[in-house]
Amino acid sequence: MNNEAVSLGHAKVTGNGIFFKGHYYSTAEAIKGRWFEHAGWIGGWPVIVVYNPGNLVSIFIVNERDQSLIKCDSINPQSEYGEKLERYFQSIQLLQKERLTRPRRKTSRARQQRRGKQSLRMRELIEEVQKNIINHKGTHSIPDC
């Protein structure tokens, strides 16, 4: 960031990008880390940015772990990059909708049915043991499963 005048500010990571002063920004690190997808799920989170007030084409997120700067470029919907990013966001949103409306897996129901049968068999075994104890039979055997 050369010798230009810089300022600190707060941006928000959202499902549509990093929002700062009315513009959206993105970075390869955010895409690789699936920041925007996570922000869509949890509602986003604030980040500290360093920027040049006279040039908002790029901003820099302050990495809180090591105090390094992560360059973020403005998303221009008319650019090729902006169009690709827009398609990415749309595909993420579509996948989220599909995930929410998808019926539960059949294996889950089958597993529940097996558990129910196992539970019923266990109750039957317990009742059989109780009957044997109540009848004071000399030998108590548990039936085979």
From TrEMBL:
Species for this entry: Paenibacillus swuensis
UniProt-annotated stretches for the region Disordered: 101-121
Bias type Basic residues, positions: 102-120
Name of the featured protein: Transposase-like Mu C-terminal domain-containing protein
Superkingdom per UniProt: Bacteria
